[in-house]
Specification:
single chain, about 325 residues, 3-stranded antiparallel beta sheet, 3 strands, about 75% helix, globular
């Protein structure tokens, strides 16, 4: 019996070590897969947005006529690149195990740029939907009068968007640090930057303004998208009539481009509200659900990653729109 007890203890200790080692290898494998996914998605998004941006720049400078929608699409690709660089790459670097690679100023700049770019993405997507709705509106409609006479008339909107979102994110400059000072702080971005608690006065100043911004621009986006759906439905009925009359008819490029913009708007709304749902779940849940946190991180980057793929896939339709009617 004296000999059996040490052997049994040694066996139990060995099994425990094997279990710990297996669990450690499993965690390392999952961490590697997560890192690989973030890296591939981030690189894919950056390359996609750069390709789209370069293509539109060549179309802008090489074309005989400047189109407002070209500027809007270039600005959207630019904001997507900022989001991916400010959010995706640091997340990937942290996943590889490199901690504290940013100082306090670096954290403030990175998180500030990412939040500003996310706000710009909402504003630019809304502007894209409104501009496209104006383009496809009938010539006799009141909306047609709002069509910009020149592409340069779009630039003031970009200036307003930048000023608005830069001012709305000023509170982040004082609430972000790279030091984990206490456990009550909320960790963000893979544990390389931290939010410090804000006063209730500052929170109730900036939060309603952000909610109002999202509501206004999403309202404009939905209104323009609904108007485009109405016009596309009328066009579909017209095509059915011509088809029954055995007449040849080719869909105008503006209407086919509107379908691409509607697909982009659906993509934006899906990732926006999915992010909101996951954020609400994480706030209400008491535990630290790693899977939900990682899924939400991907949802934040989702629109910036997939929107250029939609544009690349539908690029022929958008290019035809640029050479379409005035």
């Amino acid at each position: 019996m004296c000999c059996t007890d040490p052997c049994l203890s040694l066996l139990m200790l060995s099994l425990k070590c094997i279990r710990i080692l297996y669990r450690s290898k499993e965690e390392m494998a999952l961490k590697f897969i997560k890192t690989l996914i973030f890296l591939l998605m981030t690189v894919l998004g950056i390359l996609g947005n750069m390709s789209v941006s370069v293509h539109y720049m060549f179309s802008w400078w090489g074309g005989s006529e400047k189109k407002p929608i070209q500027l809007v699409l270039m600005h959207l690709a630019f904001t997507n690149i900022i989001i991916l660089l400010a959010k995706g790459l640091p997340k990937t670097i942290t996943a590889f195990g490199l901690r504290n690679f940013l100082d306090d100023l670096g954290c403030k700049i990175l998180i500030y740029l990412e939040r500003v770019a996310r706000g710009l993405s909402i504003c630019t997507s809304s502007l894209l939907a409104v501009v496209q709705a104006i383009i496809i509106s009938p010539r006799a409609s009141w909306w047609r009068r709002l069509r910009p006479k020149s592409a340069w008339h779009i630039l003031p909107f970009f200036s307003v968007f930048w000023i608005l979102n830069c001012l709305m994110c000023l509170n982040l400059i004082h609430s972000i640090t790279n030091k984990n000072l206490n456990v009550s702080q909320i960790m963000t971005d893979g544990n390389y930057c931290y939010f410090m608690p804000e006063s209730q006065e500052i929170k109730w100043i900036f939060l309603p303004v952000m909610v109002l911004r999202d509501a206004v621009f999403q309202g404009a986006m939905r209104g323009a998208s609904g108007y485009m759906v109405f016009l596309l439905h009328k066009h579909h009925q017209h095509v059915l009539y011509l088809h029954n009359s055995k007449l040849l008819y080719r869909t105008p490029p503006e209407l086919r481009a509107a379908q691409s913009v509607l697909l982009l708007m659906l993509c934006f709304l899906f990732f926006y509200w999915a992010d909101c749902a996951f954020s609400l779940f994480l706030i209400l849940s008491s535990g630290n659900n790693t899977l939900m946190i990682n899924t939400r991180e991907l949802l934040i980057l989702g629109y910036a990653i997939f929107s250029p793929l939609v544009l690349i896939h539908r690029d022929g339709l958008l290019a035809e729109c640029w050479h379409g009617r005035n």
